[in-house]
Design a protein that fits this description.
The complex is a heterodimer of chains A (about 220) and B (about 400).
Chain A lengths: L1 E11 L4 E12 L4 E5 L6 H8 L7 E6 L2 E2 L5 H11 E4 L11 H10 L5 H14 L15 H13 L5 E5 L7 H18 L2 E5 L3 H5 L3 E6 L2 E2 L2
Parallel strand pairs in A: 3-8, 3-9, 6-7, 7-8
Antiparallel strand pairs in A: 1-2, 1-4, 4-5, 9-10
Helix pairs in contact in A: 3-4, 3-5, 4-5, 5-6
Chain B lengths: L1 H10 L1 H33 L9 E7 L7 H17 L3 E7 L11 E6 L2 E11 L3 H5 L3 E4 L12 E6 H7 L9 E2 L8 E7 L14 E5 L10 E6 L5 H14 L4 E6 H44 L1 H9 L4 H27 L1 H4 L7 H32 L2 H6 L2
Parallel strand pairs in B: 4-9, 6-8
Antiparallel strand pairs in B: 1-10, 1-11, 2-10, 3-4, 5-8, 6-9, 7-8
Helix pairs in contact in B: 2-7, 2-9, 2-11, 7-11, 9-11
Classes of the chains: A alpha/beta (about 220), B alpha+beta (about 400).
Bound molecules: adenosine-5'-triphosphate and magnesium ion.
The site of magnesium ion (MG) has 3 residues of chain A, from helix 1.
C-alpha cells in the first residue's frame, strides 16, 4: 500500500543541517496496522509527514496505492490527501470555532458533496466513535479523549484507505488511550483500513501487527 | 464552502466585531468624501452660465442719496454715461449685491402651485445685464423697456428654477407666485443658471427682477465688461473717475476671475481636509486589515496546516482567507449602506439622491478594493506555507 525507498530528509536552517531521516525503506501492506517507535527527535513525525505527502523527502521515492507521487502538483497532492489519506494528530488539530459536526465534515468540503450527504456521513462517522450525542458542542467543551475521537471521525469520514496517526494517545491517560486504540483496531479489522501509527507506548505498539523502530533517523528494526 | 465560511465568521463574531466596526467607520467616511466629490463634480460639469473673464465689479459704499427720485435718476444716468464713455468699457449694469462669487446672498422662498421652493436667489438687474455678463438665454428674452409697462411684473428665471417649477415644459408666458391675480409675475425668459458660488458649489435656483428707477437707491454694485487687455492703468483711471464723481463714497474694484479663484478655494478647503482625514483612515484601515489578516495567518497556522492535510490546495487556503475578509466587508457594507441610504431618504442635506447613490457605490467599491488588496498578500503568504511546517508549529 505504501512503499518508501531510500527516503532521506535533511532539514537546513541557517546554522545547522539536520539529517532527520537516513535512507529509510519501508513497505506497508494493504490492511496492515503498523506502529513506529523511537526516542524523541528520531524522525518519526518526519517520516509520517512524508508518507502523508505533507512534506517532500530530500531524496528517495514514495509510492502510495501503486502510484508514484513525485511528480504530483499541488492540486493533485491535495486531492490525493483528501481521498486516500486520513490524519490523526497528537494535539487533535480541531478548529475551535466550529462545532463538532462541522469539524468532522471538513474533509468533505474539499470534494463534490452536497450538504445533506456531508451531514449524513459526518453523523455516521461520529456514531462510529461514539460521539453522536455531541454534534453541537464546540471542541473546547470536550475532554481530550472526546476531542481525539472527533479527530478520528474526521479522519474516517471520507473513507480513506490509509490512516496516519501521530501519537494519537500521547495526550491521554491509559484508559482513554485504550478506548482510542480500540477504535483504531476495529477500524483496521472491520473496514480493512491500513494504519500507520507513531507511539511512545509499548503496550499500544504491541497491539499492532508490526513494529518499526527508528533511532537517529535510521530504521533499527 | 460559502456557508462554511459564514459559520466560521459567525462563530468568531467577537473577534470580527472590531474589524467590522473599522470597515464600517471607514465606509461612512469614504461615503462622505465621495458624496462631496460627486457633488463637486456634478456642479463642475455644469456650464458657468456666463462669461466671467473681463468682468469687473465696482462696489459702492455709502452711495449718493436723495429723496428726489428724478434727481437720483439723473445722477445715476450721468454716472453710467461717464463710465460707458471710457473706451475700455463695453457694457455695464447696476445690480443687487449678490453678484457672482460674492458672499452676499439674498434669497427667500417661492410658492408655485402650492409647492414651496426654498432658497430662491432674488436678483435685481438692468436691461444691460445680459450683455455685461453675456448670459446664455435658453428661452424667451432678457428684460427690455417694454417690461416697464406690462400688466404683470416681468421676471426671468434660471434653468434651476424652471426645472423646479415648470419642469421640462415651456416657462415663457407662464405665471409665477401664488398671489392674487394682479400680483402675479410673468416669466419672459429663462437663462442658464449662473454658478454664483463658483465651479463646485450649487448655486441654487434664481429669479431676476428688472431694476427700475426706484431701485438705484439700494443697488450698490456695478458689473462692467471691459475690453480684453484692460490693465491696471485703466483700473486706476476708472477708480479716479468713480471717486471723483461720488465724493462721499468708498469705491472698490474687483475682478470676477479673481473672485472665482477665491470662491473655489474656499469650496475646496473642506474637501482637502476631508481627503487628508480619509487618507489617514485609508492607511489606518489598510494597516489594521493587513495586520489582522497577517495575525490570523500566524494564529491560524494550525488550521491552515490541517486544511492542507485534509485536501485543501494552497490556492484554496488563500482564497478562503480572502473570501472571509470579503464576507466581513460585505456585512459591514450592508450595515453601512443602511445608514447611508437614510441621507437621501430623509434628505438630510439639500443634495439630489443620485449624488448620494453615486457616493455610496463609489465607497462600496473602494472598501471592497481596499479589503481585497490588503488580504491578497497575506492570503498568498498563507498558501506558501508548507503543511508540515504549519502543523508542526501549533
Ligand atoms: N521544520 C524543521 N526544521 C528543522 N529541523 C526539523 C524540522 N522538523 C523537525 N526537525 C528536526 O528533525 C528531527 C526529527 O524531528 P521529528 O519531529 O520527526 O521527531 P519525532 O521523532 O517526531 O520526535 P517526537 O517524538 O518528540 O515527536 C529533529 O531533530 C528535529 O529537530
Ligand atoms: Mg513527533
Amino acid at each position: 500500500m505504501i512503499r518508501l525507498q531510500n527516503i532521506e530528509k535533511v532539514y537546513r536552517t541557517d546554522t545547522i543541517e539536520t539529517l532527520a531521516l537516513n535512507s529509510i525503506s519501508l513497505d506497508v501492506a494493504k490492511g496492515e496496522f503498523l506502529s513506529i517507535m523511537g526516542p524523541s527527535g528520531c524522525g518519526k513525525s518526519t517520516l509520517l509527514n512524508i508518507m502523508g505527502l505533507l512534506d517532500a523527502p530530500s531524496r528517495g521515492s514514495i509510492k502510495i496505492a501503486d502510484k508514484a507521487t513525485e511528480n504530483l502538483n499541488d492540486k493533485q497532492l491535495a486531492q490525493f490527501r483528501n481521498k486516500t489519506l486520513g490524519f490523526i494528530f497528537q494535539s487533535y488539530h480541531l478548529i475551535n470555532d466550529l462545532q463538532v459536526l462541522d469539524n468532522v465534515e471538513l474533509p468533505l468540503l474539499y470534494r463534490d458533496t452536497t450538504a445533506k450527504e456531508r451531514k449524513m456521513l459526518a453523523t455516521e462517522a461520529l456514531e462510529k466513535v461514539g460521539l453522536a450525542n455531541r454534534v453541537k458542542h464546540f471542541p473546547t467543551q470536550l475532554s481530550g479523549g472526546q476531542r481525539q475521537r472527533v479527530a478520528i471521525a474526521r479522519a474516517i469520514v471520507g473513507r480513506p484507505d490509509i490512516i496516519l496517526a501521530d501519537e494519537p494517545t500521547g495526550n491521554l491517560d491509559s484508559a482513554m488511550g485504550n478506548e482510542i486504540m480500540d477504535i483504531l483496531i476495529n477500524l483496521n479489522r472491520n473496514e480493512g483500513t491500513t494504519i500507520v501509527m507513531v507511539t511512545h507506548d509499548e503496550n499500544m505498539a504491541h497491539k499492532t501487527h508490526r513494529l518499526v523502530r527508528l533511532f537517529d533517523g535510521s530504521q533499527v528494526q | 464552502m460559502f456557508k462554511h465560511l459564514f459559520k466560521l465568521i459567525w462563530n468568531k463574531k467577537k473577534q470580527n466585531f472590531l474589524l467590522m466596526t473599522e470597515m464600517l467607520v471607514s465606509f461612512m467616511v469614504f461615503f462622505a468624501v465621495f458624496t462631496l466629490m460627486v457633488y463637486y463634480y456634478d456642479n463642475y460639469k455644469k456650464p458657468m452660465g456666463f462669461k466671467y473673464q473681463d468682468v469687473w465689479v465696482i462696489n459702492i459704499n455709502n452711495a449718493y442719496q436723495t429723496k428726489n427720485t428724478d434727481s437720483l435718476d439723473l445722477y445715476y444716468e450721468t454716472l453710467k454715461k461717464t463710465i460707458k464713455a471710457l473706451p475700455q468699457v463695453k457694457e455695464l449694469s447696476f445690480v443687487s449685491g449678490n453678484t457672482p462669487f460674492a458672499q452676499q446672498i439674498n434669497n427667500g422662498g417661492l410658492t408655485f402651485k402650492g409647492k414651496h421652493i426654498n432658497g430662491v436667489n432674488n436678483f435685481t438687474a438692468e436691461d444691460s445685464y445680459k450683455d455685461a455678463l453675456q448670459v446664455e438665454v435658453l428661452e424667451g428674452r432678457w428684460f427690455n423697456k417694454q417690461d416697464a409697462v406690462t400688466k404683470y411684473r416681468s421676471v426671468i428665471i434660471d434653468a434651476d428654477l424652471k426645472e423646479a417649477t415648470f419642469g421640462k415644459g415651456q416657462a415663457v408666458g407662464k405665471f409665477l407666485g401664488d398671489y392674487d391675480d394682479k400680483n402675479k409675475m410673468k416669466v419672459v425668459g429663462v437663462i442658464q443658471t449662473i454658478k454664483r458660488n463658483g465651479d463646485y458649489v450649487k448655486p441654487g435656483p434664481g429669479i431676476y427682477y428688472r431694476a427700475d428707477t426706484g431701485s438705484f437707491r439700494w443697488l450698490n454694485k456695478i458689473l462692467i465688461r471691459v475690453a480684453p487687455g484692460a490693465d491696471a492703468a485703466f483700473e486706476g483711471k476708472l477708480y479716479k473717475t468713480m471717486a471723483g464723481y461720488m465724493k462721499n463714497s468708498n469705491i472698490e474694484i474687483e475682478h470676477l476671475s479673481n473672485k472665482l479663484k477665491d470662491t473655489n478655494y474656499f469650496a475646496v478647503i473642506p474637501m482637502i481636509i476631508l481627503s487628508i482625514v480619509s487618507c489617514f483612515l485609508i492607511i489606518n484601515v489598510a494597516l489594521g486589515l493587513f495586520g489582522v489578516l497577517w495575525y490570523n495567518i500566524n494564529k491560524r497556522k494550525g488550521e491552515i496546516g490541517l486544511r492542507r492535510a485534509i485536501g485543501a490546495t494552497g490556492n484554496s487556503v488563500s482564497s478562503q482567507l480572502v473570501m472571509e475578509s470579503m464576507i466581513l466587508a460585505t456585512l459591514s457594507l450592508i450595515i453601512g449602506s443602511f445608514f447611508a441610504i437614510q441621507f437621501p431618504l430623509l434628505s438630510v442635506f439639500d443634495l439630489q439622491a443620485h449624488i448620494y447613490i453615486a457616493g455610496m457605490l463609489l465607497s462600496i467599491l473602494f472598501v471592497y478594493l481596499l479589503v481585497l488588496v490588503c488580504s491578497l498578500y497575506p492570503g498568498r503568504q498563507a498558501a506558501a506555507i508548507y503543511p508540515a511546517v504549519a502543523l508542526h508549529e501549533e
